[in-house]
Write a structure and sequence with these properties.
Elements (H helix, E strand, L loop, with lengths): L1 H21 L25 E7 L5 E7 L7 H21 L4 H12 L3 H23 L17 H24 L2 H34 L2 H23 L15 H16 L3 H22 L11 H34 L15 H19 L4 H10 L4 H25 L5 H29 L3 H31 L12
Antiparallel strand pairs: 1-2
Helix pairs in contact: 1-13, 2-3, 2-14, 2-15, 3-4, 3-15, 4-13, 4-14, 5-9, 5-10, 5-11, 5-13, 6-12, 6-15, 9-10, 9-13, 11-12, 12-13, 12-15
């Protein structure tokens, strides 16, 4: 198992270092030129420095560059790193990256423009997600009866991740043409609803934990368990064979059913190489298609032209094909489990009937809103999994795993496009790894010892509420600045 984790780490690091190495000759992240070239008016902050820049015709003009980390106001750099350390540790416990906090803080304290705060944010999220994955990949389901299962629910990943990524394709297009005020209004509504739902779920869990501690829920669960067991026995006995493989049909002997159950259990107990390989394949295809669409050095695709829409449609179709595969695979596996009398526990997602087709629709909607609002998918996927009834520990780990691959896709593209400031990027990457490890061992360790799963829901709701406040304030300030400059508040052209 140790060797497998090291191999996985090597794959992740290689995926990030290849594009970074390709850009070293360009001075990755050394210069951050302002839109205006006036000095010293544009360089009145200690986070910027006025320098001479060479023009294409060989002349020199004065420009304003952002200083590297610890080369300007050291107090501001240390202060923002300390604050982010605390909040990223909490975000780690909730299974999300914390981009809704990183972006406003970098913008307000270090004065980076959005052109750099967003790449720095996703770079930090990758660092935290990597360390969370290598901690969680060796952990098991908190329910003792199914302790052989991994903590991360990879079937949920197969079913939801491609759909969520496909949704972000549509959401980014909507964001590109929508006015800032509309994005801010929708952000406030969506994130407020998500925080309220998550907070409500946390309160419900807290009440259940309190009742269980008093011994009341134990009696109710025992009575309900006896009735449910009798009902399940009747349903399984009468259930027709759903699969073409007759050997897993419930009408066969108990011995055959036990053999099928043992095969499923053995499969769940193994290291999830197949699931991880599938997810990496999805990521690789997405990165290639995204670079073809957005990076002229690969293929010249002009925005708004037929080639652009052809590549964009290809990305969406590519992801939806993976989503269809995930639905087929998970549905077939669920039927096998039903057929052999598999023991489901609280928090397991019900994929029976038409329900399995509803979940990807929810994921697409979450992806659309995440892309439209410019936030991480974890802030919406986390509350979604909790609303579907998933155990908070499993929900946190599963959301974190999905966040790893969504953030890696963005970070790789930003590295290739030379948009990650090297000093700040490295600092935030390492900071997120350490703070995420702290969040996993301290906060989630407390949850496992005490059984207080509600704490995860409360932390998640707190992070979403704080992100909502910070992002809305930042958005309003941007709108006010646009108004002073006389910019339009209507819908924009996609390729402006």
């Amino acid at each position: 198992m140790a060797m497998q984790r090291w191999l996985m780490l090597a794959l992740v690091v290689a995926a990030l270092l290849i594009p970074a190495t390709a850009n070293l000759c360009n001075g990755l992240g050394i210069e951050f030129q302002c839109v205006s070239e006036g000095c010293p008016e544009d360089c009145d902050s200690d986070m910027f420095v006025c320098t001479e820049l060479a023009t294409p015709v060989g002349n020199f003009t004065k420009g304003c560059n952002h200083v590297n980390i610890f080369q300007g106001n050291i107090g501001k750099d240390i202060g923002v790193l300390v604050l982010l350390f605390v909040f990223l540790a909490l975000a780690s416990a909730g299974g999300i990256g914390g981009g809704g906090i990183i972006i406003p803080m970098l913008s307000a304290v270090t004065l980076f423009p959005p052109y750099y705060t967003i790449p720095l944010s996703v770079t930090s999220i990758v660092g935290g997600s990597i360390i969370r994955f290598f901690i969680q990949v060796r952990q098991h389901h908190p329910e003792a009866r199914v302790a052989h299962r991994p903590l991360i629910d990879y079937n949920v990943v197969l079913c939801l991740l491609p759909s969520a990524l496909a949704g972000t394709v549509l959401g980014v297009l909507l964001n590109s043409v929508s006015p800032g005020w509309l994005v801010i209004v929708c952000m406030f509504i969506v994130l407020t609803l998500a925080s309220v739902k998550t907070l409500s779920k946390g309160i419900t869990l807290y009440k259940q934990e309190k009742a269980q501690k008093n011994g009341k829920q134990a009696i109710d669960a025992a009575e309900a368990g006896e009735e449910g067991a009798k009902r399940d026995e009747i349903e399984l006995a009468d259930m027709p064979c759903k699969l073409p493989e007759a050997e897993v049909c419930t009408t066969l002997s108990q011995k055959d059913r036990d053999m099928e159950w043992a095969a499923i259990k053995e499969s769940e107990s193994k290291f999830p190489w197949v699931y991880i390989a599938i997810t990496f394949t999805q990521l690789a295809g997405l990165i290639v298609l995204s670079l073809v669409r957005g990076y002229d050095d690969f293929v010249e695709v002009e925005c708004g032209r037929g080639q652009y829409w052809g590549v964009t449609s290809s990305i969406f179709v590519y992801l939806m094909l993976w989503a269809a595969f995930g639905i087929w695979y998970v549905k077939r596996l669920h039927e096998r489990k039903l057929a052999c009398g598999y023991e489901f526990v609280e928090g397991d997602i019900d994929y029976s009937g038409s329900k399995i087709y509803k979940y990807p629709v929810f994921a697409i909607a979450a992806g659309v809103m995440a892309g439209f609002l410019g936030i991480g998918g974890g802030m919406l996927l986390g509350p979604l999994l909790l609303q579907l009834g998933m155990v908070p520990l499993v929900s946190s780990a599963t959301t974190s795993f999905m966040t790893l691959f969504t953030s890696m896709s963005s970070t790789t593209q930003y590295l290739v496009l030379n948009r990650v400031p090297a000093g700040y990027g490295a600092a935030l990457f390492g900071l997120a790894m350490v703070s995420s490890a702290l969040g996993q061992f301290v906060v989630l360790g407390y949850v496992k010892r005490t059984g207080r799963n509600s704490l995860i829901a409360f932390i998640l709701s707190f992070i979403i509420i704080l992100s909502t406040i910070l992002l809305v304030i930042m958005g309003v300030l941007d709108i006010v600045a646009d108004a002073r400059e006389g910019l339009s508040f209507g819908f924009r052209s996609l390729c402006d």
